[in-house]
Automatic annotation (TrEMBL):
Pfam families: Aldedh. Residues 13-459 form the Aldehyde dehydrogenase domain. Belongs to the aldehyde dehydrogenase family. The active site is at E245. This is Aldehyde dehydrogenase family protein. It comes from the Bacteria.
Length: 462
């Protein structure tokens, strides 16, 4: 076990203000692998003050130079990709191939995309007799989750730096080691002191202190809707901006004309990826009643193949939470066709890939975010019924539509109350805006829409 010390503040590692530490646990065997400092209000204040002091110079840095620092950051991440992947596997439990391809590969792409945007975005534009300036919003407080520990940091830090903002990151307490490696990459990339700062700590202490700090101009949070509401309330009381990427209960709608086998197999793979710990996962599969029984059989067979291929959940609390949802689903009338609540291994925070059939829209498992490898299969009568079910939750983050004719799928997708829809298995696009409708959040990440979250506008009239 390694005991890490210090917070990355003002361009160097500084001793923490308090003696408390956070234990980092490998969820595959539930052994403590490291400790990191538990940040205090004093640590957060020091980090914010460093970010505030660095803001004028960084905001005035030419966009081309900001782009060069982001390119250097991307290259530093690539140089460390094997170490980062091993760390993600150790503290999150992600299988090595997933850690390398997704947990490292995706944020590398995102960092590169913002290097290009910083160099090409029109930070000034003419409209009539006015010049419109797009200026950095200021100091950003970023609070990130554990499910994609590097991606969630890069998706906030890269656009903030491209915009000319400075930033303080409070990573999830379950996965702080990846965040520390990111801080080292930032240092290697030559990002000026104070532009990026890292404080590890607990949400109710360090996270709340960051959200409440009067010198933080924007709070960017990814996590649960319940915590997002609290952060939104804090921010509104202080009239500061927020960007909230929250929960999801995404619908995977398989229309009668679709290739059923492909739609089901891809849908199951989507839910099982990252052990189901993905806010945009298509956790509700909607199938026409004429094809329902066949779809359930296909889904059960597909899920069974993932038994030894998915990693553990992030911790024992999450394991028990997911197992509780499975039990509740069965108690409310769902039919268990794959997996179940029983732990598949004696050690580790594992949950079996699970498929619940005969799920109805009002069931708890059809309404609440489970955040584990659990697929709910629902039947519908006609297209209007499918739309009613798809839109019938408080969430609206992502979704999918499958149809034999692309135009048919697009027409249905246009009526879905959700921020992103994949058509017939459309692939991930790091330039497309990501974010939710309804209680899935406020604002967007990725691409130019993610950049504008960190900008404010000023007009000069001539």
């Amino acid at each position: 076990m390694k005991a890490y010390d210090g917070m990355y503040i003002g361009g160097s590692w500084r001793p923490a203000a308090g003696p408390d530490v956070i234990e980092v646990v490998d969820p595959a065997d539930e052994q403590v692998i490291a400790t990191v400092p538990a940040g205090t209000v004093e640590d957060v204040d020091a980090a914010v003050r460093a970010a505030r002091a660095a803001l004028p110079a960084w905001a005035a840095t030419p966009p081309a130079e900001r782009a060069a620092r982001l390119t250097a950051l991307r290259d530093a991440l690539v140089a460390r990709q094997d170490e980062i992947a091993r760390t993600v596997t150790a503290e999150l439990g992600a299988p090595p191939k997933l850690a390398q391809a997704v947990h490292v590969g995706m944020p590398v792409m995102v960092a590169g995309s913002y290097a290009e945007l910083a160099a090409t975005y029109a930070f000034e534009e003419k409209t009539g007799n006015s010049t419109v300036l797009h200026e950095p919003v200021g100091v950003v407080g970023a609070i990130t989750p554990w499910n994609y520990p590097l991606h969630q940091i890069v998706a906030k830090v890269a656009p903030a730096l491209a915009a000319g903002c400075t930033i303080v990151v409070k990573p999830a307490e379950d996965t702080p080691l990846t965040a520390r490696l990111f801080a080292e990459a930032v240092h290697e990339a030559g990002v000026p002191a104070g532009v990026f700062n890292l404080v590890t700590g607990l949400g109710p202490v360090a996270g709340q202190a960051l959200a409440e700090h009067p010198d933080v101009d924007l709070v960017s949070f990814t996590g649960s809707t319940a915590v997002g509401r609290r952060i939104g309330a804090i921010a509104s009381g202080m009239v500061k901006r927020v960007a909230l990427e929250l929960g999801g209960k995404s619908a995977n709608v398989i229309l009668p004309s679709a290739d059923l086998a492909r739609a089901v197999n891809v849908g199951v793979a989507n839910v099982m990826s990252n052990s189901g710990q993905t806010c945009s996962a298509w956790t509700r599969m909607l199938v026409h009643r004429d094809s329902y029984d066949e779809a359930v059989e296909l889904a059960a067979a597909a899920a069974a193949k993932y038994g030894d291929r998915i990693g553990p959940l992030v911790n024992a609390r999450q394991q028990e939470r997911v197992r509780g949802y499975i039990e509740k689903g069965v108690a409310e009338g769902a039919r268990l066709v794959a997996g179940g609540p029983e732990a598949p291994r004696e050690k580790g925070c594992f949950v079996s890939p699970t498929v619940l059939a005969d799920v109805t829209p009002e069931m708890t498992v059809a309404q609440e975010e489970i955040f584990g490898p659990v697929l709910c299969v629902l039947r519908y009568d006609d297209e209007e019924d499918a739309l009613r079910i798809a839109n019938g939750t408080v969430y609206g983050l992502s979704g999918a539509v499958w149809a034999g004719d692309e135009a048919e799928a697009v027409a249905f997708a246009r009526r879905m109350d959700t921020g992103q829809v994949d058509i017939n298995g459309g692939s991930f696009n790091p330039l497309a805006p990501f974010g939710g409708y309804k209680q899935s959040g406020v604002g967007r990440e990725l691409g130019v829409h993610g950049l504008t979250e960190y900008l404010q506008t000023k007009s000069l009239q001539f």
